[in-house]
Every structure is written in C-alpha cells, then in structure tokens.
TrEMBL record:
Gene3D superfamilies: 6-Phosphogluconate Dehydrogenase, domain 3, N-(1-d-carboxylethyl)-l-norvaline Dehydrogenase, domain 2, NAD(P)-binding Rossmann-like Domain
UniProt-listed Enzyme Commission number(s): 1.1.1.44
SMART domains the record matches: 6PGD (SM01350)
Source organism (scientific name): Streptomyces gibsoniae
Record-annotated 6-phosphogluconate dehydrogenase C-terminal domain positions: 179-469
Name of the protein in question: 6-phosphogluconate dehydrogenase, decarboxylating
Keyword Glycoprotein among UniProt keywords: no
Pathway: Carbohydrate degradation; pentose phosphate pathway; D-ribulose 5-phosphate from D-glucose 6-phosphate (oxidative stage): step 3/3
Cross-referenced SUPFAM superfamilies: 6-phosphogluconate dehydrogenase C-terminal domain-like, NAD(P)-binding Rossmann-fold domains
Alphabetized GO MF terms: phosphogluconate dehydrogenase (decarboxylating) activity
Length: 477
C-alpha cells in the first residue's frame, strides 16, 4: 500500500486528474469499470509518474495507504451511488471517498450523512476547468469534514490552478454539500456570463453591423481591460474561426440551439426554493431552452419586428463602447445574484462559506476565471458581511458610471428588435433594488382583496386586512 490517492473512473476528467496527481509526485492507484481504460492510461502516460493500476476493486483499495483517499470520477447520479456502494464496504473508518463529479448537492448531503454513519469521510468536490483544467490545474471546491480537508487539502493545493499571486485555487468550502453547491452556482454564473457575451455579440452584429471577425477584434480589445477573462478570450477565438468546409465564419454554420447538462437549471431551481432572485441566471437558462424550440421558432418567424436602422461606421464604434459598459454592468449583477445564492445556501445549511475565498479560488483554473474576481475577493475581504456585491462602493461607482450607456444599449436593442434577456434582467434587478417604492405594495393590496392575505403598514406594526367586500374599514388581523 503505497499510493497516496486512487482514482476510479478514468474517462477524460478522471484520467487527467490522475495524471495531474502523478505529475506532482504522488503515487496514484488507478481503477476503471472497463479495465481497458486503466491499461491505456498506463500505456500512454505511465512515464509521467508512479501509477498503480488495478483491475479488481479489492486490489485497488489495497494499493492505497491509510487513511485511504479514493476519488470517484464517474457519471453523476446513479453511477456514483453504484460506485460508492461497490467501494464503501472495502474501506475502514477514517478513510475518504472524494466525489469529483458534478453531483447535485442534495445527493452529496445524503451520501455524506450515510457514509459518516459508517465512519467514512465523504468529500463532495466541485471541479471546474474541463479536461485541460483537470490536467494542468483546475479550480477545486471540496466540501466535507475539516478532518478530511486536513488530510486531502495539501494534495489538492498541489494539483490546483494557481492565481497570479500564487494562491492555489482550492479551499475547504464547508461541510457536506457546500462544495457541490458552490460548483453549481459557479456553473449558473457561467451560463449568465455566456448569455451576456452572446447578447453583446448579437448587438454588435445586428445593431452595429460588424462581422464576426471584427467582433472578435473588439472582444480581444475588451480582454485587455476590466473584462479580461477566459470566456471573453475564447469568444474571440470562436468568432474568428473560419469553417474549413464552407469558408464561412464558423459561428454561421453552427446550429443556433444551445444545449445544457443541468447545473444551470439546478442553480435556478434551488434559487427558487431559497427565495433568491437570480433573474440573470434564469434568463440564461431560458434563453438556451428557447433556442432549442425549433418548431416554435419556425412558427414565429413571420411575427412583425421593427424596420432595421443600421448604424453608420462612426456610430458603430461609439455603440461598441457602450456595449462594453452594458456587458460589464450586467456581469456585476450576475455575480451579485450568484454570490447572494451562495450566501443564502450557506445560511440555510449552516455551511459558514467564506465568500471572499470563493472569489479567490475562481480566479484561475475554472471556466469563469477573470481579472474581475480579484475585485470581488477584495470587496468581501474588506467587508465579509457585505449584504450584496452592489453594496460595495467600488462596484456601485462602476455601475453608476456605466448606467447611462447600459440604458442606451437597451434602448437600441428594443428599438431594433434584438432580444437581450440577460442585459434587461440585470438592469431590471438593479433598478428594482434601487427603487424607493416597489409595486409590491399594490400586489399586497390585491392579495388582501381577493384572498384576505393581509398586509403590513408603513406607519405602524401589525398585520391588517381591509373589509373589501363590506364597508372597506380596516381591521387588525
Ligand atoms: P463521464 O461523465 O462521461 O463518465 C464516464 C466514466 O464513468 C467512465 O469511467 C465510466 O466507466 C464510468 N461509469 C459510468 N457508469 C458507471 C457505473 N455504473 N459504474 C462504474 N463506472 C461507471 O466522464 P467525464 O470524465 O466527462 O466526467 C466525470 C465526472 O466529472 C462527471 O460527473 C462529470 O459531470 C464531471 N465533470 C466533467 C467535466 C468535463 O468537462 N467533462 C468538468 C467537471 C466535472 P466505463 O469506462 O467502464 O464506461
């Protein structure tokens, strides 16, 4: 027994994580349901480090030094339960099972509780960065016991991405499902970021009249400023790519129906349960689902729209600058909503998540990595109980500076009939938060009228009901 860690499930993610551990000097036990994958890994990459391949689960477990660290990288859902049930009986108290798949945090809570009762630490771990990240350094979001992090953390810190200041992009997020919860919201924010970038692209194309190649250049310029991020960078790459078969821009030959695997949807479902307004993330999920309704879209093609009024060359440049402002302001709002969901989840489940640390470990390795996250970390470090990112003075000032352009962009989008659900939802959230009075007062009046649901008054405590069907006098409820 000489392996410090074992990985079972050697598809793209597991294979690359195993190699990452080995490249960092650890002996890695290997296992996969189909043994061919295990042997292929050793054949192709055996020279990269120390691997201990095993075919039988018993041999795999026996190869691990104690306390055992057994990482599962299989398909999320039922396969993860099956693999846990296969290995748990072979483990001893104090051993660890690390699930690095995209599990739902509620499943992680259930599994953690069950294994804790059997003396085994269960570390539900969010991992972001895709295939490349897994190999060269992902952002890692482990949940589970403090004790398990003490044993596993140093190894994760070795294989994780490093932020520019050298900090590893991993931290103990909190107990049981905390890690997978944070990974879920990470993905929700990723959906929102992608949707906002998509809207910026569509506006630059349809309103400003730029070609995909020109838009790629605009994104490259933006990527040298405050929008500096992985997603902006790859957007420029995708937009400048030419399809070999047709010679057309790649983006024009791809079907415009976005797919999804579910983590964005979970973020919204859980936000609904927790009562957290994540309107930008929700719009991003809905935008993907709308794009897939081809029959509905086909049937709607004849619907009337405004007359196109293309901008002049000179106007287009100024418009592009405005779109940058709108994108940046909307991005602040999506992160505000995402961090609100994490803060609320943390409270609901008693996780005590450090929001500044979350921003810190998203600075490298993961899909939403961005220069901007440094600033979010600074905001939470300065004030850990910040009620909302929008309460941070710097972000508030930046939005204040961007808002005129943000509004102008939405005026142009509306006038020219370009759908911008992400930008619009972000601005609506911002304006609603700013508002002195919301129409919610009227909503309460309506609810009291038809259902005697009662209301509270601004001028004295208590709950009240108006006798709408009678003399309309007010009674204390
Ligand atoms: P897949 O999700 O495609 O899963 C394939 C692996 O699961 C194979 O090793 C397969 O074994 C194993 N497996 C499936 N069902 C069972 C079962 N019933 N019993 C035992 N083993 C089973 O692999 P990925 O590498 O793409 O992803 C692994 C995990 O990481 C997933 O949970 C995924 O959501 C998550 N993830 C993926 C990312 C990505 O970019 N791909 C990013 C971050 C997380 P066999 O070879 O025998 O079929």
């Amino acid at each position: 027994a000489s392996a410090q860690i074992g990985v079972t499930g050697l598809a793209v993610m597991g294979r690359n994580l195993a190699r990452n551990f080995a490249r960092n000097g650890y002996t890695v036990a290997l296992h996969n349901r189909t043994p061919a994958r295990t042997h292929d890994l050793v054949k192709e990459f055996g020279h990269e480090g120390d691997f201990a391949p095993a075919e039988a689960p018993e041999d795999f477990v026996a190869a691990l030094e104690r306390p055992r660290r057994l990482m599962i990288m299989v398909k999320a859902g039922a396969p993860t339960d099956a693999v846990i049930e296969e290995f748990a009986p072979l483990l001893e108290p104090g051993d660890m099972i690390i699930d690095g798949g995209n599990a739902h945090f509620a499943d992680t809570r259930r599994r953690e509780k069950d294994l804790r009762e059997r003396g085994i630490h269960f570390v539900g771990t969010g991992i972001s960065g895709g295939e490349e990240g897994a190999l060269h350094g992902p952002s890692i979001m482990p949940g589970g016991s403090t004790e398990s992090y003490a044993s596993l953390g140093p190894m994760l810190e070795k294989i994780a991405a490093k932020a520019k200041d050298g900090t590893p992009c991993v931290t103990h997020i909190g107990p049981d499902g905390a890690g997978h919860f944070v990974k879920m919201v990470h993905n929700g924010i990723e959906y929102a970021d992608m949707q906002l970038i998509g809207e910026a692209y569509q506006l630059l194309r349809d309103v400003a009249g730029y070609s995909p190649a020109e838009i790629a250049e605009i994104f490259r310029t933006w990527n040298t400023g405050r929008l500096d991020s992985y997603l902006i960078e790859i957007t420029a790459e995708v937009l400048s790519h030419i399809d070999e078969a047709t010679g057309k821009p790649f983006v024009d030959v791809v079907q415009d129906q976005a797919e999804q695997k579910g983590t964005g949807r979970w973020t919204v479902q859980i936000a609904l349960d927790l009562g957290v307004p994540v309107s930008g993330i929700a719009e991003a999920v809905f935008a993907r689902s709308l794009s897939g309704h081809s029959a509905l879209r086909e049937a709607s093609r004849h619907l009337a729209g405004p007359k196109p009024a293309p901008l002049s060359k000179a106007e287009a440049g100024a418009f592009a600058d405005r779109v940058e402002q709108a994108l940046y302001a909307s991005k602040i709002v999506s992160y505000t909503q995402g961090f609100h969901e994490i803060a609320t989840g943390s409270e609901e489940y008693d996780w005590d998540i450090d929001l500044g640390e979350v921003a810190s470990i998203w600075r490298a390795g993961c899909i939403i990595r961005a220069a901007f996250l440094d600033r979010i970390r600074a905001a939470y470090d300065a004030r850990p109980d910040l009620p909302s990112l929008l309460s941070d003075e710097t972000f508030a000032q930046e939005i204040a500076a961007a808002q005129d352009d943000w509004r102008e962009v939405l005026v142009a989008a509306t006038r020219q009939g370009v759908a911008t659900p992400g930008f619009s939802a972000a601005l609506a959230y911002y304006d609603a938060l700013r508002a002195e009075r919301l129409p919610a007062a009227l909503t309460q009046g309506q609810r009291d009228f038809f259902g005697a649901h009662t209301y509270r008054r601004t001028d004295r405590p208590g709950s009240f009901h108006t006798l709408w069907g009678g003399d309309r006098s007010e009674v204390e409820a």
